[in-house]
Amino acid sequence: MNKIIVLLFLLLSFIGSSQEIEKVIARQGHVSFFSHTSVENIEATNNQVLSIIDFSKKEIAISMLMNAFVFKKSLMHEHFNESYIESDKYPKATFTGDIIDLEPLEIEKQVKLIKGKLTIHGITKEVEIRTSIENFNGKYILSGDFDATVKDFNIKIPPVLAPNIAKIIAIKFRFEYEPYEK
Amino acid sequence: MSLMKNNILFNLLFFVCIGISQSIYSQDLLETLEKEYPDTPQYEMATFKATRISIGHSVENRKKGVLEIMAMNRFWNLPNNEKSQSFVADKLSTRLALEYGVSDRLTFGVGGTTLDGIFDSFLKYRLVRQQKNTKASPFSITLFQNISYRGKKGYKNINLYDSFSDRLAYTSQLLIAHKFTSQFSLQISPTYIHRGSSRFNEDPHNQFAIGVGARYKLGGHVAIASEYSHVLNPLKSVNTYNAFAIGVNWELSDVMLQFQLTNVRGVVEDAFIAQTPFNFNFNDPNFVFGFNATFALHLNQKKNE
User: Which string of b and e fits A15-26 if b means at least 16 CB within 10 Å?
Assistant: First the structure.
């Protein structure tokens, strides 16, 4: 009897781990941010953002290189990396979180809350982001937007340039996922 | 007894299996992503912030389509001139220049200096870029070539002024820089200067110099920079001194301000490297206060996709 129970558990644990293969990855995700002030509008896009979703755990991770953001002004790209985000010291921004009540098999568009940790400039903040998730025959698309406060991430702006940079930056994202194979 | 043993063994096996499956579970998703980054080389950015370390050229180029409008000023006082009515400083030399990024690696510039009426033009090409986290390309290397024309006779007349070519001078530099940390960068600049003419036979036509420059960032926008250049075969007919400068660079978005305490009065390479007439100290007329203002204009903006 004992043996049977143990074998059952073993079997279950293997089923569990086989479900774990249910991962999808986005290798060319889009993240862009906007800073609108009366003095200047600044906009930058990163088209090489990586993201992975683990459906079994309803977890998501995002990682991007800060120097892959493209600006309209080339000098701004340099300043962004050198003077503000310090990408020598903090080359990446990352996010890990849980997609609350994710329905992996849902075909209709679903809007879910993602709770997790956003790390920019070496500083981690708890954030909640409303995200729409679409499923086109197993090809998932995740998109949404949220706001981030510059001050939260200890990004220093000299007083002279304070009017040029918004206090709150709008961030947009869109990821297209495909099945993940090692 | 044997049953108990069996039980323990099975329980052990059970926990080990659970443990294995758990460890697969908790594998960090971020770590998985880490392996997904493509293996493209990452280049060091902003070894120096501006195209000048302080007084001389740095390895940096502006990107394609960026036009820099520059005013490079040098102020100094004359000795025993206390009754002077001049404003701020007795003497002023200014180079006004336009420098344009033809491509991401090539810069073309033209300028005119009030002192000695020097007109100059240069090409600067970024040959090698320093790569991050690899020993493949540890240095940034930039080639610099200028030509300058003396409109007026200089402070000490060492050139002939008979024909156009007599008034020319050429400076070639190999700029080699390494960014050690995000704060500290160092540059070595072997320099070759050729003058089109010489009034005195004892003066060398071809001069060689080694320049050393460094910057240390104090914060995101402010850096200390210093430069020194040693002339290996100085002029014989007049006393000249090696160029030295120490100063502060302040970057403000599209504007770069550079302040210097220096002994150089000329702004064009051949003039200040080989023909600086006074040593560096704080007496007049040796002491020169320098101020470069650079405004970057993005003429050819990238389309943001």
Answer: eebeebeebbbb
Please report the ipTM that was assigned to this predicted complex. Answer: 0.80
**CB of A28 less than 8 A from some CB of B:** no
Contact B140, B44 (CB under 8 A): yes
The strand pair at B106-113 and A23-36 is best described as unpaired
Please answer yes or no on whether A57 and B25 come within 8 Å at the CB atom. yes
The CATH superfamily of B66-298 is: monomeric porin ompg (2.40.160.40)
Look at B24 and A79 and tell me if their CB atoms are within 8 Å: no
Tokens 């090696």 belong to residue: B242
Q: Which residue, among B145, B110, B50, B80, has the nearest Cα to A83 in the 3D structure? A: B50
DSSP label at B264?
-
At the topology level of CATH, where does A22-179 sit?
Answer: Lipocalin (2.40.128)
Which residues of chain B make contact with A48, given a CB cutoff of 8 A? 38
The C-alpha angle with vertex A127 and arms to A16 and A31, in degrees rounded to 5, equals 90
Cα distances from A166 to residues A42, A162, B26, B154, in angstroms, run 9, 8, 38, 51
Question: What are the chain A neighbours of B62 within 8 Å (beta carbons)?
Answer: 74-75
Domain layout of chain A by residue ranges: 22-179
pLDDT tens column, B83-98: 777 777 888 999 999 9
Residue B305's pLDDT is 39
The answer on pLDDT for B2 being more than 90 is: no
Which pTM was predicted? Answer: 0.82
Q: Is B72 on the interface with A (CB under 8 A)?
A: no
- pLDDT tens profile B261-276: 999 999 999 999 999 9
| Sequence-ordered list of residues with C-beta below 8 angstroms from that of B199, at least 6 positions apart, any chain | B157, B158, B159, B160, B237
Nearest-CA residue of chain B relative to A25? B33
pLDDT digits (tens, 9 = 90+) for A22-53: 889 999 999 999 999 999 999 999 999 999 99
Q: How confident is the model at residue B27 (pLDDT cuts 50, 70, 90)?
A: very low
Say what the pLDDT of residue A139 is: 87
Every domain of chain B and the residues it spans? 2-36, 66-298
Please state, in angstroms and rounded to a whole number, the distance separating the CA atoms of residues B78 and B181. Answer: 41
Contact B62, B68 (CB under 8 A): yes
The SS3 call for residue B98 is strand
